[in-house]
Amino acid sequence: MKTLDDLLGEGVSGRRVFVRADLNVPFDKANPGVISDDGRARAVLPTLIALRDAGAKVIVASHLGRPKGAPDPKFTLAPVATRLGELLGSDVIFAEDTVGADAQAKVEALADGQVLLLENLRFNEGETSKDDAVRGAFADELATFADYYVDDAFGAVHRKHASVYDVAARLPHYAGGLVVKEVEVLRKVSETPEKPYVVVLGGSKVSDKLAVIQALLPKVDKLLVGGGMCFTFLKAQGFEVGKSLLEDEMVSVCADLLEQAQGRIVLPVDVVAATEFSADAQHDVVEASAIPADRLGLDIGPKSTELFASAIAGAKTVFWNGPMGVFELAPFAAGTRGVAEAITKIDGFSVVGGGDSAAAVRTLGLDETAFGHISTGGGASLEYLEGKTLPGVSALEK
Fold this sequence. Notes:
Elements: H1 4-10, E1 16-20, H2 39-43, H3 45-53, E2 57-61, H4 78-88, E3 92-94, H5 101-108, E4 115-117, H6 132-143, E5 148-151, H7 162-166, E6 173-175, H8 177-191, E7 197-201, H9 206-216, E8 222-225, H10 230-236, H11 251-261, E9 265-266, E10 270-274, E11 283-287, E12 296-300, H12 302-313, E13 317-321, H13 334-344, E14 349-352, H14 355-363, E15 373-374, H15 378-386, H16 391-397
Parallel strand pairs: 1-2, 1-5, 2-4, 3-4, 5-6, 7-8, 7-13, 8-9, 13-14, 14-15
Antiparallel strand pairs: 10-11, 10-12
Helix pairs in contact: 9-15, 10-11, 12-13
């Protein structure tokens, strides 16, 4: 797989470089158009700066949200162009379409060292189409814009989309520094993790994490389970879980996993149980084996946080994906905070597996540099650890 360094070594001054970035940033629900977390935009800066400073004409493309293959003002990348310009310290030109007249004109007018951001790729149905011909036709149009292709969107490499998979087949292609780093880190924790190896999983559903649990269980010393998914495991132990999130169809699967693990799966011993899903709801710490029928668990409790922190303390490798509770609501953030802080203190290598975990680090104001690596791709990270082929990575390797 050729890298950005290889491309820079060949020389890009005056050449057009198409950069697939992951600018799928979250917005403040109370203030439309205001980015609440620009972590993904900051992650691609080194690649954009290197190309800009080398004199390339940089064409950046990304998706945002899930529009239905047509323009939707709710998902415009215009605010992202503004923020990207602020981060780069220079104006970012914005094209109001993907491959239409505005994009074509602005690509043609690009000067050396300028950066252009195309409108949301998913405004074109060809981006996500499962029809190879439709997807390929869109990729053909995108490929006419550039001389080279750089993929630095690790958060999208698990998708067989036009800008991720098909454009790479049409241009000389290179992996950006972010993609290279992500693959190196995930290869390390999946193939050669230093022991003891502890994995911390949270999030809402067991079904979403089943494949990664099955892939990692033979490799780990401890698998700590929190978040909404823990209640299906607790039910598998014979405990009642009240109104907590529960996947009935997964209870027997969890029972089998607990038997296979032979004590290596660690579950909460207490939880913060509330009367409803609200920051203002009445809530108390209860034993995990005695959740009241009219309550739902929204965080792991203090004993569980101590238990998890103790298991983490001696680890040489930690992989964390998924919060321990509803960290966005202050009364239910302590478990996630406590576990995250424990991870920062290990004498070893830690990986935050993107998604809500990465968002939690920033939302809770934790020191990002205290973690070994914070991934930009939650779904891509999990699929890599499951052993799946990532289309965007395989395209770069061809």
